[in-house]
Sequence to fold (991 residues):
Amino acid sequence: MNDLILLAILSSSLLPGLIIFTLAEESVRLRTTLNLTGALFKLLFIALLFFRVAEREYAELRLPLLADMELVLRADALSMLFLTLSAFLWLLTTIYAIGYLENSPHRSRFFGFFSLCVSATTGIALAGDMITFVIFYEALTISTYPLVVHRGTPAALHAGRIYLAYTLLGGVVLFFAAVWLRAIAGPLEFTPGGVISGLDPSLYGSLTIIFALLVLSLGVKAALVPLHSWLPTAMVAPAPVSALLHAVAVVKAGAFGIVRVVHDIYGIGFSADLNLLFPLSVMAAITVLYGSIRALAQNDLKRRLAFSTVSQVSYILMGIALASPLATIGGLVHLVHQGLMKITLFFCAGNLAETLGIHKIDEMDGVGRRMPWTMTAFTVGALGMIGVPPLVGFISKWYLGLGSLAAGQPWIIIILIASTLLNACYFLPVLHRIWFNKEQQQWSKSTLAGGRETIWPLLAPPLITAALVIFFGIFAYLFGSPLYWVELITTREYGL
Amino acid sequence: MTEILLGQHWFFWMTLVPLGAAVVAFLIPQQARWIGLATALLLPFFALAAIAATLTAEVQPITGGGWPTPLGIELRRDGLALVMLTVTAVVGFIISCYALGYFPARGHHSSRARYFWPLWLFLWGSCNALFVSGDLFNLYVTLELVTLASVSLIALEGGKAALTAALRYLFIGLFGSLAYLLGVGIFYGAYATVDLALLGDIITGTSLDHAAMALMVAGLVLKSALFPLHFWLPQAHAMAPAPVSAVLSALVIKCSYVILLRLWFEVFVSLDTVAVGHLLGLLGSVAIIWGSLLALRQERLKLLIAYSTVAQIGYLFLVFPLARNETMATAWVGGVLLMMTHACGKAAMFMVAGTIHHTAGSDRISRLAGAGGPIGVLVVVFTLAATTIIGLPPSGGFFSKWLFINAALVTGQWWYLPIILSGTLLAAGYVAKVLGWAFLDVKRSSYPVIPWVMKWPPLVLSVIALLFGLIAYEPVQIALLGAPVSGPIFMEAGP
Fold:
């Protein structure tokens, strides 16, 4: 059966994006209306789908591509997790970007590609087989490039070249691995428990190589060390782009792809049997520590946040690689939790840059008095990253710790503790500067009504996400909360 | 009514109408533009009617003079002919629209318009005739017509460089045709027939047959500009006026390739082709790398696109080594898919380059700096069209590379894998170079005004090229009608 709602979800950002390309620079109102209507409709469609998927009624849409090959869109529980996250954060980021880019040039181009980028992310979430996934994954690579180079400065173009070099190389390897796997295993529909466990044992050697190729190619976007260098360089992009890149679109697409490969192509049991997961957990552990250590030395706020992303995204992979239900919960829930926290931090960094022109950490002394609300949100995000209870970051780390014990790999706990300490080392001094140091320079007073620190489109999004960081930390078991949903995914995946 | 429509000999009309229109356009130069446009409007409908007729109705075989085949000449009405006619009709229609803007009726270049239309219609009719020809001699004649028309079109630009390029193209073309004709002569002497299907049945595989094959392959390779016989192509394609470059790269190159494809899968099947296949594969591989590297070094947009064509021709020739017994269908479909999608993408790219040349006065890539406004649209068109050249999804180029890699894995010819993959990266490199300039933020004092026929028609083609992978199901099914290959397209590799 073909569910047109999937097409509606996809086109709710694609169509506005295509229309926006043709708009003149001055038609701000029409562009804003298109953007917000699209985002709201997408959320509405997703809400409709949400209840169906909770009842195990999966939606599916198939289009023939070539003989024996189809484009498969499918909404299962895991798709809904990523889909909801991206649609919700897209709405907030759009509002933020409208405020952030006020009166800057090339806005039609920006919002056009922004919508294409989100459409590609939606496609990745909804992809029902490997081929569809690859199609949207490459589309994401291309549609993000114009956003990274949006400023048009030589530095931005340099970052764009680095970004393209890394992601296209990864894309080519992914393409090759997918063709190879398709050639030995037939159609690669995402199925809980995997699709290839029945193959002839003489193919296990090839399967191991393909697994390594898949993980490494997807690891480029997920910023696995040593494939992470593009991410800190891409920091020259405007703040909404960085927020989207780090919280939803690019790095999460890589991590999500690895989850799909391990869970729904190879199957957790089968990949554990082939001993594929231990190397992955070691790589993830190295990335967690390396990212945190590099973050310590950064003075540029956005670069510090970027290295923090490198570190945090690998929590997801660590949870997947441990292959115990509790660790899987910890990893998957971090997909959402890290998104909420990191987008808050990037919104706040953007506010500092846009309102006060602050880019460096040593310029942040006493900024809490000038921008109290923004800095409160920042503090919530930073404490969440460290893993302070009752914020969402704590929940992820708690489940990861429990999962590592259950999987009989207690060394992960040491990694978690070390990483938490490092997180504290690079976030707490910043918080100290913000709240307790004396102001070094005189910032211009706010000219807005009521002495508001910045305009609403810039202020509201970080406040909302920060509130969610607290809310989902305290009410973690509420119906529809990330943790609730991830437990649902995990029970279905393990067949518990 | 429908029966009358479906019963028409559409294949015949698709050849006769453009040739007739060429004569009329030559006789009435004042109205040449409108005659050309009217023909261009008609042909896509003819192509659709031809497809509908083939799919639904039993049509009598079309033979010259009504004689059945050993005596008469039968037209080919198979899937390959159908898709090539259709692609030519669509691309030709868009190029005709674009040419309306490129060769304005008034102004100091009006004499170029006067010659462009008859020559272009003549070329179009010859291409169509070539696609439906089913015997060696008719293929030779139509290929000659195509070459002569192309040479005149290249010379249209005028000036020393264009004339040199045109003359070089003429001599190369004649040399290639001569080699091909020698091969035809040998076959005719040995088997007393030039019909492809008959020849395929009765060919025995003597050493003389192999010599004929070598001659014909060499001639066609020269005409298709496979490395190292590509030397004439970049100058010829870059010197010509933009609509002509588009025609040459998108369609003319494909003519000799289609002949080779027909010969290889229908006539040469009983010959020992493995060694020749490997040689073509090797040359194709070098073409991919060499063409892409040179494209990366070009400072002028049209030359960059021309060298990219050299690389893409290399991919087309990978079909021959990759088509082994079990992967015949895989490689054949990959090649046909690449031909179709490359025609759309490359034509759009050349038109964009032409528009930039037209408005900025030069097609240096650095002229794209700070592309905003009207030029920004062109850059978007260029990028969309380039997705298929790079092989990014969902373009047709993506799926044809998929099929090539699949065939290489199944037949164990793993050495083509790094070639195909690095060709992809190099193509991404030269497209990224163009994009890098376009996104550079430079304040421009004035934006040129571009007539809409030069802006929007290429967009249509580039969107077709981009989305071709999603709509490829039907075209591939049509192409497989009466194809010399059969079996599943996707093959499973053993351990």
In short: The beta strands of chain A are 59-66, 69-75. The two ends of chain A are 28 Å apart (CA to CA). Residues 276-496 of chain A form one domain. The CA atoms of residues 189 and 314 of chain A lie 25 Å apart.
